[in-house]
Amino acid sequence: MAKVKQRGKYDYNFDVMADKFENSIYGTLKGDWRLKLIKEDLDSIYQGDIADVWDAGCGMGQIALWLAKRGHRLTCNDISYNMLQKAKESFAKADIEATFYKAPAQDVAREIEAKDLVIFHAVIEWLANPLDGLSVVSSRVKKGGYLSLLFFNQHSIVFRNTLRGGWRLQTILDDSWYGKGKKLTPPHPQKPSTIIKWLESNNYEIVAHTGIRVFHDYMSEEALSSSDIDKILEIEYKYCREETYKDMARYVHILARKLS
After folding, report:
1. pLDDT at 72
2. How far apart are CA 48 and CA 54, in angstroms?
3. Is residue 39 situated within a structural domain?
4. CATH for 129
5. How high is the pLDDT of residue 28?
6. Strands annotated E in 155-196
7. 172 assigned to some structural domain
8. Binning pLDDT at 50, 70 and 90, where does residue 5 land?
9. What is the C-alpha separation between 217 and 220, in angstroms, rounded?
């Protein structure tokens, strides 16, 4: 899909930002922490079993490759050519095969068989119609299979921008914050309660619920520079799965099992 001019009205393509993601996000403490917690949640399933996995919106394929190295069979897609190329290169370097589609997840869902695990990470908040997209993608989860869903938390936008104050306060009151800041702020962040309600109403049970960066992203540069990062991460880990705190994180990861 071509790069869109009106953010939020179409599914977003990160083609032009692939290098930024690689260097400024995935190659940082933030990215490493995100991967650590997601891997912990996923580690609770398929111990020793080989699973058919679809990474719907795989980006550069870090999670997909980690699973493939453990023997799972991977199907991956992304609408970004550059992101998908980086994923393919990583798999080739590891001498591991996978099936790749350069196509929207909604289109791929109509072509592939149901899977034991469907991964949908940091995609839903960039879709023009988030819950419609979730419905299509999750239809490829087998009965008894799992959906791994990571999304940008709407609560974090309200909390962070209110703490920063100034002109941002009115945008929070008016729900007009989108488009006022960085381009990496998604148009459709989700509330954890909305996602959980949707999952439960569609016959899923919650297996894991983890907040990713509960405190770090709200800390000032001064606070971060004067603090021991290991202690910050220790606190992050202590509270990332606790009630209240997990739903205040920048991102929320939910692992759900399909009952029927």
Report:
1. 97
2. 18
3. yes
4. 3.40.50.150
5. 85
6. none
7. no
8. very low
9. 8
Q: How far is CA 177 from CA 161, 173, 180, in A?
A: 9, 9, 6
Q: Record the pTM.
A: 0.91
Mean pLDDT of 105-112: 96
pLDDT, mean of residues 106-111: 96
Give the SS3 label for residue 140. Answer: coil
- Alpha carbon distance 72, 64 (integer Å): 9
Residues 134, 138, 139, CA angle at the centre, nearest 5°?
Answer: 120
CA 77 to chain centroid: 14
Tell me how many domains the chain contains: 1
- Predicted confidence at residue 95, as pLDDT, reads 98
* In-domain check, residue 174: no
Rounded to the nearest angstrom, the gap between the alpha carbon of residue 51 and the centroid of all alpha carbons in its chain is 20
Burial 73-102 (b: 16+ CB within 10 A, else e): bbbbbbbbebbbebbbebbeeeeeebebbe
Residue 68 lies in a domain: yes
Instruction: Tell me how many degrees the CA angle 112-117-123 measures, rounded to the nearest 5.
Output: 80
In the block, which residue shows the tokens 């703490």? 163
Q: Give the residues across from 210 on adjacent strands.
A: 253
The secondary structure element, H or E, covering residue 106 is: helix 105-109
148 pLDDT tier (thresholds 50, 70, 90): very high
Which residue range(s) make up the domain with 75? 15-154+188-258
The phi-psi region of residue 71 (left if phi > 0; otherwise alpha if psi is between -120 and 50; otherwise beta) is left
> Given this model, what pLDDT does residue 24 score?
57
Q: For 166-209, how does the pLDDT look when each residue is reduced to its tens digit (9 = 90+)? A: 999 999 999 888 766 666 789 999 999 999 999 999 999 999 99
CA distance 148 to 196: 12
> In the structure encoding, which two tokens stand for residue 232, read together?
């910050």
